[in-house]
Amino acid sequence: RLARTILESAGRGVMSRVLAALLEERFVADRRAERGAPFLPPHVIAACVAEAQLGLIDAWFAGRTDASSQALANALRASARAIAAALFRDQAVG
User: Fold this and answer.
1) Whose CA is closest to 42, among 16, 22, 15, 56?
2) Could you give the CA distance from residue 43 to residue 20 in angstroms, rounded to a whole number?
3) Residues 6 or more apart from 75 whose CB is under 8 A from it?
4) pLDDT over 80 at 18, yes or no
């Protein structure tokens, strides 16, 4: 119940911003060695990933899936990597 209450309140915005800040730090550190400009600034990509992750977590807590916690963790990891990979791709690439 507590998780659902937080995800349905202003607390979600706070969680999203904190998660996005942590993701942005990771993205910037991971991308320093790579060339090419991302499609969007890292903070925008981080916000996108954060909201996607919270959406998956919200669906899981709401019982809209019977996926295991391990399946949820795998989905969170895979979706974050896929979004980041797509949006950090060099703009010159089609």
Assistant:
1) 22
2) 7
3) 56, 67
4) yes
What is the token pair recorded at 80? Answer: 């974050």
Model pTM?
Answer: 0.81
Q: Directed axis angle between helix 69-87 and helix 42-61, to 10°?
A: 160
The model's pLDDT over 26-41, given as tens digits with 9 standing for 90+, comes to: 888 877 656 567 888 9
If DSSP states are collapsed to H, E and C, what string results for 14-36? HHHHHHHHHHHHHHHHHHCCCCC
HEC secondary structure over the chain: CHHHHHHCCCHHHHHHHHHHHHHHHHHHHHHCCCCCCCCCCHHHHHHHHHHHHHHHHHHHHCCCCCCCHHHHHHHHHHHHHHHHHHHCCCCCCC
